[in-house]
Design brief:
about 400 residues, 10 helices, alpha/beta, single chain, globular, 21 strands
C-alpha cells in the first residue's frame, strides 16, 4: 500500500473490482492505492471496532449503512492498537461528528493511519454486486495513483484492473501470525481470581480477555506461534483460541496445538477462527463462503437450548460439518451446536465426551448485541466442572 495525506483527501477516487466493475467517488482518509478482498458489513454502528478488528486484515470493508462517521473516533473503543482494514468504503461520510467522547474525525483517523478509502459511491449497488458475484479482490485508487497522462486523473482502467487481478487472494492466505501479539502478556482478573486461561492470539480483540477478566479469569495471551508447552507453562484451567484473519486451511500449527489440548482434556473454548480450528482438529473440512457473514445483526440458533440470538460476525470461511447427526471424532462424539438461520451455515461445535466447544461469531459483542455473553459463563462452567 502506498499513501499520502493532506489537502488532497477529497480528490477523485475509483474503486475497481477484479471482475472489471468500477465505482467512481471521492477519496476518504488517506490518498493513494490499496488492495484487498472486498467484503460488506451490515452494522449500522460500531465502525471503530470494525476498523480495529484484526480479523479484517487484508480486507476492504464496504459499510452498508449509508451514513458513517457520525460519532467520530475516541480513544476508548479500539479493539487493537491500530486499524487493520486494507481499505474503507462509505456512501455518505459525516461532515461533523457529534458525540461527547469524540476526539477526532473518522476521516482524519483513516488518513493518520494511512488507510485509503473512498466515499460518495452507491454502496447498495456494490453490496448487491458482491452478493451476486461473491467476495472478490478490489483496489481503491486516488491522487497520484489515479493520474493518467500529464496528470489528467484519467488512469487506464484496464491497467488498474490488471493490478487488482495480480493482488493476493484470501483463499490460501496464512495471516494470523501477522496480526497476533509477538510477546505474551497478562490481563489480570477483576476482583477475586478464580481461574487461569491461556488464550492463543490468532487476532484477538481487546474486549475478549476483558469479558473473561470480568468473570474472575486471569488471561495469559500468547502469540499465534505458541506451542503446547507454552500453553501449559501457565498452568491453565482452560484454553481459549481467538478470532483471526485468513484461510483456516493454512492454520496447521494452531490445529496441532489444539489437538494437544484436546488430548489432555483441558476445558477449551474457541471463537470465529478458533471455531474453524476446532473443526479441523476434529477432522472436519473448511470452505470459503460466497460473501461471508459480517455485521452485528446475524440471527443464530443455539440448538442446545432452542434459543435464537442476534450476533456479531466477521467470517468468510466456515466449517463443513453435518447438521443432522452426531459425528464420531478422534476425541469422542461431536455435534453442531449453533447454526445461522439465514443460510444454515455451521456457527458452533461442541464435544459430548470432552469439555470443548466453539462458536463462529463474536460473543464479546464489541460492537454488537449482548445475546451471546452467556458463552463466557458456559466456559466458566466447564472449568468449574473440571476442577470439581
Amino acid at each position: 500500500m502506498t499513501t499520502s495525506t493532506g489537502a488532497a483527501v477529497k480528490a477523485p477516487a475509483i474503486l475497481v473490482l477484479e471482475d472489471g466493475r468500477t465505482f467512481r467517488g471521492r477519496a476518504y482518509g488517506a490518498v493513494g492505492e490499496t488492495f484487498g478482498e472486498a467484503v460488506f458489513s451490515t452494522g449500522m454502528t460500531g465502525y471503530q471496532e470494525t476498523l480495529t478488528d484484526p480479523s479484517y486484515h487484508r480486507q476492504v470493508v464496504v459499510m452498508t449503512a449509508p451514513h458513517i462517521g457520525n460519532t467520530g473516533v475516541n480513544d476508548e473503543d479500539p479493539e487493537s492498537a491500530r486499524i487493520w482494514v486494507s481499505g474503507f468504503v462509505v456512501r455518505d461520510p459525516a461532515r461533523t461528528p457529534s458525540n461527547w467522547r469524540s476526539v477526532r474525525t473518522l476521516d482524519d483517523e483513516l488518513a493518520a493511519q494511512g488507510v485509503v478509502g473512498i466515499s460518495g459511491i452507491d454502496t447498495r449497488a456494490l453490496t448487491r454486486h458482491l452478493r451476486e458475484r461473491g467476495a472478490m479482490r478490489v483496489g481503491i485508487f486516488s491522487g497520484p495513483a489515479l493520474d493518467g497522462p500529464a496528470g489528467t486523473g484519467l488512469a487506464d482502467e484496464a491497467a488498474l484492473i490488471a493490478k487488482v487481478q495480480s493482488a493476493p487472494q484470501m483463499k490460501g492466505a496464512d495471516l494470523s501470525a501477522e496480526v497476533a501479539t509477538k510477546e505474551a502478556y497478562v490481563v489480570p482478573a477483576q476482583g477475586t481470581k478464580r481461574f487461569t486461561v491461556a488464550a492463543v492470539d490468532l487476532g484477538i480483540k481487546g474486549m475478549t480477555p476483558y469479558r473473561m477478566a470480568e468473570r474472575g479469569i486471569e488471561v495469559h495471551v500468547l502469540p499465534a506461534t505458541a506451542t503446547a508447552e507454552d500453553v501449559y507453562a501457565v498452568a491453565p484451567d482452560g484454553v481459549f483460541f481467538s478470532n483471526g484473519p485468513g484461510d483456516p486451511a493454512t492454520a496447521d500449527h494452531p490445529v496441532s496445538v489444539m489437538r494437544a489440548v484436546l488430548e489432555r482434556g483441558t476445558p477449551l473454548f474457541g471463537i470465529c477462527f478458533g471455531n474453524q480450528i476446532l473443526g479441523r482438529a476434529l477432522g472436519f473440512g473448511t470452505y470459503k463462503l460466497k460473501y461471508g457473514h459480517r455485521g452485528i445483526n446475524q440471527p443464530v440458533q443455539d440448538r442446545t437450548t432452542g434459543k435464537v440470538e442476534v450476533t456479531a460476525h466477521n467470517h468468510g470461511f466456515a466449517v463443513d460439518a453435518p447438521l443432522d447427526k452426531i459425528s464420531d471424532t478422534p476425541y469422542g462424539r461431536a455435534e453442531v451446536s449453533h447454526v445461522c438461520l439465514n443460510d444454515n451455515v455451521v456457527e458452533g461445535l461442541q464435544l459430548l465426551d470432552r469439555p470443548a466447544f466453539s462458536v463462529q461469531y463474536h460473543p464479546e459483542a464489541a460492537a454488537g448485541p449482548h445475546d451471546a455473553a452467556y458463552l463466557f459463563d458456559r466456559f466458566v462452567q466447564l472449568m468449574e466442572g473440571q476442577r470439581a
